[in-house]
Write a structure and sequence with these properties.
With 343 residues, the chain is α/β, with parallel strands linked by helices. It has helices at residues 2-36, 38-43, 61-77, 92-99, 113-122, 130-133, 158-167, 182-194, 206-214, 225-233, 282-297, 299-308, 317-338; strands at 50-54, 81-85, 107-112, 134-143, 146-150, 173-176, 199-202, 220-223, 237-242, 270-277, 311-312.
């Protein structure tokens, strides 16, 4: 009886050992197969949640774009997409956070032009090189901004704003979503061309920067059309000019700032893009690029992006890299000429 039990136990043990060895051999062969076959490795991606890092507080245009696209990708790939808001320091915090993770295709940065083409030029504390440390995945939107003032401000055009500022030097203020952001630079270049002095008041995101104008604590700001629509409809903000070379189709009644005499050379445009850490596998970059592009082609997502963030941009990773390279070359002389100082 005891011999039979021991014999059975030995048989079970031998079977378990053989099964374990076979599983180990199978796993080893699969690992070799995947390493030799990148296509099959790409098919296995993603197998865990993906992270989107946003350099702004929740509720702003960049955050909205990241969440819209992230929701689509999560549903399409069957993996959760987590949006992490890391505002502050002109995007330095968010970019360092992004670069602290392995370049394995599970962490992406969704940001605006300021973090990529502006802050590295004007901020001596920036210790990253956007062209070496980051890989463009896809451009997301071309993001127009509109100059808005508080409801009781005694100006109804850009020309009247400039005249008032000249008559009241040092009294007016403009808010932005942070030092070194596109809104900050937009205001500083406006100051230089208009020969006026509006004091910069930075915040940790566009929602707060806009609210401070609506409540009357700040004179004006530059914000996306979607983010100020409710304020304008309620009569809490006035739109004076678009920060675009040509009038914005959804708001044809709003003139561009360049239409104001003396402001013809005003040339500041904003955009949002998605980036990954340098070294991220090219097949993963291509896969996520395809997901972003398909997301923006969905009618409901495209409409929400236009309403809140800007016009969707169609780019491959290569086209995104070329676009960013040109933007960096464009902004360097603008920033040097403006002689912008960080507070």
């Amino acid at each position: 009886m005891h011999v039979s039990v021991i014999s059975n136990l030995e048989g079970i043990l031998m079977f378990s050992i053989k099964t374990a060895l076979k599983l180990m051999q199978w796993a080893s062969l699969m690992a070799v197969s995947l390493s030799l076959n990148p296509a099959r490795a790409a098919d296995a991606y993603p197998n865990r949640p993906i992270r989107f890092v946003v350099p702004y507080a929740a509720g702003g245009a960049v955050d909205v774009a990241a969440r819209l696209i992230g929701k689509y990708i999560a549903e399409d790939l069957g993996q959760q997409v987590v949006v992490e808001n890391k505002p502050g320091a002109g995007g330095i915090i968010a970019i360092k956070h992004t670069l602290s993770f392995p370049p394995d295709g599970y962490t992406f940065l969704v940001c605006a032009a300021g973090e990529i083409v502006i802050n590295p030029v004007i901020n001596k504390e920036v210790d990253y090189d956007p062209q070496k440390d980051l890989t463009p995945v896809s451009m997301v939107t071309s993001a127009p901004n509109v100059l808005v003032v508080r409801k009781d401000f005694p100006a109804n055009s850009v020309a009247e704003l400039i005249d008032y500022a000249r008559q009241h030097p040092g009294e007016l203020t403009f808010s932005s979503s942070g030092v070194g952001t596109i809104q900050h630079i937009t205001g500083e270049v406006f100051n230089r061309l208009a020969k006026i002095e509006l004091r910069h008041v930075p915040y940790n995101g566009a929602p707060q920067a806009t609210m401070e104008v609506a409540t009357g604590r700040v004179t004006m700001t530059y914000a996306s059309p979607g983010s100020i629509r409710g304020f304008v409809d309620r009569g809490e903000l006035k739109m004076l000019g678009m920060v675009l070379p040509e009038r914005y189709a959804p708001l044809p009644q709003v003139p561009t700032i360049r239409e104001t005499p003396g402001m013809e050379s005003y040339n500041i445009e904003s955009w949002f893009g998605m980036f990954a850490a340098a070294g991220t596998p090219p097949d993963v970059v291509k896969k996520i690029n395809g997901e972003v592009q398909r997301a923006m082609q969905q009618p409901d997502i495209a409409k929400k992006l236009i309403d809140t963030a800007g016009v969707p941009m169609r780019t491959t990773p290569e086209q995104a890299r070329e676009f960013v390279t040109k933007e960096i070359a464009k902004y360097k002389p603008i920033l040097k000429e403006a002689d912008i100082k960080l507070q």
